[in-house]
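Lab notebook, bench 4. Still working through the backlog of constructs that have no structural model yet. Next entry is a single chain of 149 residues. Request: give me the C-alpha cells for it.
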Amino acid sequence: MTHAVTPPDPADGALSAMTQRFMNGELDPVTFDHRAHLRVAFDVVRTQSFIEALRCYLAGIDVLVNRAGVPEKRNVTITIAFLSLVAERVQRFLCLGHSETSDECVFEAFLAANPDLEAGNALRTWYSQERLNSDFARTHFALPDRVNV
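Model written out:
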C-alpha cells in the first residue's frame, strides 16, 4: 500500500532531483543504490520533521520494492534505524555550521564527515546481521541486540 506524500516545495531548492523523483514514485528501483538511499535520507530529514520524513521514506521504499517485485526486501528495522542515525548525524553536521554554497556540496561534505554511513555498515555497531535479517526485523522495528558499554 502506498501513501500520498506531500513533499516540501521543490522551488525552494532543498530537495535533490533524485529525492523529488523518489517522493513522486518515479525512480527506477535498479538505480536506487546505497548512495541514493543516503541522498534521499539526507534530504528528507533536513526538510521535514522526523516522523514525516520517516513516513515519506517508508512509503517511497514500499513503492520501490513493490515496483521491483521484491517486497521481501523491505526491512522496517533497517529503515527506521538507518533514518534515525542519518537524522542525528545531519543535525550534528548542520550545527557545526556546514553551509557550503550548493546543496550537492553539503551532501558530499556530509558523506566525507560520515564515512561509515557510505560504507553501509553503520548499524552493525548496534545490530547483529542475524537480527537485521530476521523476519521480525523485516516487518517490525527490532531493538538493537548489541550493547556497547
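Notes after review: The CA atoms of residues 29 and 64 lie 5 Å apart. Residues 76-95 form the longest helix (20 residues). Flag for follow-up if needed.
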